[in-house]
Known about the structure:
Helix 16 links the parallel strand 22 and strand 23. It contains 19 helices and 26 strands. 35% of the residues lie in helices and 26% in strands. The chain is globular and about 80 Å long. The chain has a nine-stranded mixed sheet, with helices on both faces. A five-stranded mixed sheet has the order 23-22-24-25-26, sandwiched between helices. The site of zinc ion (ZN) has 8 residues, from loops.
Amino acid sequence: xxxxxxxxxTITGLAKKRGFFWGPSPEIYGGxxxxxxxxxxxxxxxxxxxxxxxxxxxxxxxxEVECPTVSQAAVWKASGHLDGFVDPVTQCxxxxxxxxxxxxxxxxxxxxxIAGQSLDELTESIKKLGVVCPxxxxxxxxxxxxxxMMKTRLGLDQDAYLRPETATTTYLLFRRFLTFFRxxxxxxxxxxxxxxxxxxxxxxxxxxxxxxxxxxxxxFILEExxxxxxxxxxxxxxxxxxxxxxxQQKGDSAPLKMKLSEAIKKNxxxxxxxxxxxxxxxxxxxxxxxxxxxMRLRQHSPAExxxxxxxxxxxxxxxxxxxxxxxxxxxxxxxxxxxRHQEFSKEKLSVTVDxxxxxxxxxxIAFGIERPLFCLIDNSFxxxxxxxxxxxxxxxxxxxxxxxxxxxxxxKDELVGPASEIYDALMDLGLIVQFDVGGSIGKRYRRxxxxxxPFCVTIDYTTIEDGTxxxxxxxxxxxxxxxxxxxxxxxxxxxxxxxxxxxxx
Length: 505
Ligand SMILES: [Zn+2]
């Protein structure tokens, strides 16, 4: 346990030192937990992840929208967040400290089965298990609901809230989507944007934030289309690391490698459309650079699920810092959301099927970007070794914040000129390139290893003679010479994983 904690601190320390993230923010005023600043490399990494997420959704036929992050109270009354988006809290009767009741019970009484307990049941559990205030050991009061939304105000007196998820704001556009998609279901849309949750006492740094960037894909779909989802045929033979609830009940935590078609046959998924969404979420995480053996898909127990959800699975990533980390939720939300907004807005949010009005279902893929960002740094960390006198980051080339570094051997015009041309050619290809002239080549390699740059290109005096440059690969630390006219295409293939560095030798 203590070594896990140390590793989490190692990663956070490294992230701060090298400019990935800083905080809690604002640091010079002491910081508020749950807020972090992204430094230059963290922002580059987040941009890379966002662009991978975006292209994955677009390839899967989703359209992107962007909605306001503040909405009037009526929206959150209808969505159920005003009444139901609460954490259970308890206050120490002596020192007045406030705690999240479920976390506190799990901390002081590991293994207690409290998932899905009501507020009164949690109060009972605290009494029964003898849970006390961690700071003064006094008894705790009744468990009360604490709403996680951040409240604000429009104009002088209209109550409004910062959105706790992007999904609800997407649902409000349902009638607009019907026009855009020419009344044809299913309709697939996604949104990437900020969301806010007023966590009571967020810990675990970047994993529990009060302000974060959420990605949520939604499919508006009819029940019969969920069952006969034609695209399922293309992915039915995909093998995924699945941990169904039935397996967890037997006490197993290792995922089963199972074909999706088999998982449907065994009733682990309700239907083909939902299984297709789970596969898409898994594919997005693989594209973000997570190794197969560091991932599993875990089904929620009925008690863990939101009351309206018909099924829920999570994508989990194995980290050295915190063990398995829940990174993404895939939900079958039924028609709960549209039904509620139809009722509260008095607008028709249904379609006509066989002369009957039907409110469509929603399938959802939802995740914050900061968690995978942290997990990727955790998974990429490589300690200092005999071969290399610094710890380094082994980001997959496609995801690395800087993909190529370009070095003129020395800061002389005859080298800087051709190096700048190469830099421009690589940037024109859409690669993220850094130009560095400072210090010895060895020091420059070291700096790039520390931030995980997969390839470095050096322009030297041989370049002027025969037009060749050196490419140095981060992982093997080996070098090859390539003609500068071929360089852009070679690097494009190396970064996209279409060519092995060893094939150049
Ligand atoms: Zn106390």
